[in-house]
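Worked example 3 (structure in, sequence out).
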């Protein structure tokens, strides 16, 4: 029997790293696309490097020839197109780059598959997004809800969604979109709101940060655990017919609720006062957290969260709530494998340990520098 060969664009990202682990465990040969950087950005997949069935290749979503050469060399049976400029706020500052990677990049992948003559043997998964619903026209959102993209990121992703549908119909290709709602984890980028909050909660609890500044705390999201969601990407490509699916938990929370829960897990009880730009999160008590030592009593009465206009967006998507009925029924997927409380706990626990470890490492570095300065020979 021939081996399953997966090509993952965006392998260094949150989802790419979890998906690589998932596919390797299923016996796949996994190939990932990486790009040159002056700093190490391969932290999320470092533990996989050296694994016999795991291979990395240089290419770029903005470089058609590199994609054609790579697809021709690897001859994948499945492509997971996860690469993207994925930060919505950044897409307002770099709209053209976002369109190049997130919109035209999808077309480049599809055309590379056709150019290599693999259009009837290679299945393609496109990382689509709940941001397509944008200024929502229906709550909750399902596969039939009209799209209303509300950022340069969402507009670019809408092109990706439609070009995939077009190639499915025009060329009879097995290509589909997973319309994934926000999914988070201990590997989430540090400027997305959930990770920004869990890291800040851990730092504040350990006396390493004074305050956290956030934007719109009333924004509502349907947050799931990334590790659960990569299974759906795979399931979507194992169906008889190519179809698009909404992947979500079916449960909605505000940014404020996420912050409350995260600080609680870090040992800090908050109460919120004021409204809009004047809203504040104040510490009312401290207790033993899920991991680590009790935060200092001196935090009680202090303002730990404030609102900053810097994190407001020119247009913001504020009411995302997914209906995962189709995924439950057709893919047999359980949207509640990890609950909201469990997700927050996983992330805070990880960040409490990370902050503690960083603090030890920094003390060791300082001591070492002092010894060297004093001329101590080690
Ligand atoms: P992420 O952590 O930001 O990872 C993005 C990946 O894309 C990184 O590996 C990045 O590589 C790569 N990339 C960016 N530009 C590239 C280029 N020009 N050429 C090649 N690779 C490039 O994103 P994620 O959270 O894992 O999300 C994965 C995908 O799902 C994205 O397409 C995102 O838009 C979509 N999505 C995410 C969510 C979510 O909640 N996480 C929800 C819906 C859809 P570097 O490491 O080199 O930067
Ligand atoms: O913002 C609000 C912000 O940046 C969530 C990407 O993976 O999911 C992600 O996009 C909400 C927004 O994620 C801050 O205004 C308040 O309403 O964590 P986020 P996102 O924009 O939902 C979708 C599904 C994707 O496809 C994307 O690739 O939180 N918010 N205060 C803040 N957001 C950030 N980043 N920082 C704040 O301080």
């Amino acid at each position: 029997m021939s081996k399953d060969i997966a090509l993952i664009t965006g392998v260094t990202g949150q989802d790419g790293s979890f998906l690589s682990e998932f596919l390797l465990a299923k016996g796949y040969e996994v190939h990932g696309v990486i790009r040159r950087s002056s700093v190490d950005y391969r932290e999320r997949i470092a533990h996989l490097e050296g694994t016999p069935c795991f291979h990395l290749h240089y290419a770029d979503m903005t470089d058609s020839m590199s994609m054609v050469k790579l697809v021709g060399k690897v001859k994948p049976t499945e492509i997971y197109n996860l690469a993207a400029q994925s930060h919505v706020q950044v897409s307002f500052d770099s709209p053209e780059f976002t369109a190049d990677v997130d919109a035209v990049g999808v077309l480049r992948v599809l055309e590379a598959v056709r150019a290599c003559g693999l259009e009837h043997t290679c299945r393609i998964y496109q990382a689509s997004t709940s941001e397509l619903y944008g200024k929502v026209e229906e709550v909750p959102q399902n596969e039939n809800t009209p799209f209303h993209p509300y950022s340069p990121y969402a507009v670019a992703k809408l092109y990706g969604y439609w070009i995939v549908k077009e190639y499915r119909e025009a060329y009879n290709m097995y290509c589909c979109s997973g319309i994934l709602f926000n999914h988070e984890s201990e590997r989430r980028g540090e400027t997305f709101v959930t990770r920004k909050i869990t890291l800040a909660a851990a730092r504040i609890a350990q006396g390493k940060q004074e305050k956290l500044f956030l934007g719109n705390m009333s924004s509502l999201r349907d947050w799931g655990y990334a590790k659960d969601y990569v299974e759906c990407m795979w399931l979507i490509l194992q169906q008889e017919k190519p179809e698009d699916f909404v992947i979500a938990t079916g449960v909605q929370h505000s940014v404020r609720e996420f912050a409350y829960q995260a600080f609680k897990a870090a040992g800090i009880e908050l109460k919120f006062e004021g409204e809009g730009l004047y809203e504040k999160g104040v510490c009312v008590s401290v207790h033993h957290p899920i991991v680590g030592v009790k935060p200092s009593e001196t935090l009680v009465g202090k303002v730990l969260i404030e609102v900053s206009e810097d994190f407001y967006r020119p247009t913001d998507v504020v009411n995302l709530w997914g209906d995962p009925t189709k995924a439950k029924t057709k893919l047999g997927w359980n949207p509640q494998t990890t609950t909201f409380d469990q997700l927050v706990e996983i992330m805070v626990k990880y960040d409490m340990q990370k902050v503690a470890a960083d603090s030890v490492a920094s003390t060791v570095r300082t001591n070492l520098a002092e010894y060297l300065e004093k001329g101590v020979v080690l």
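Notes: The mean pLDDT is 95. The two ends are 58 Å apart (CA to CA).
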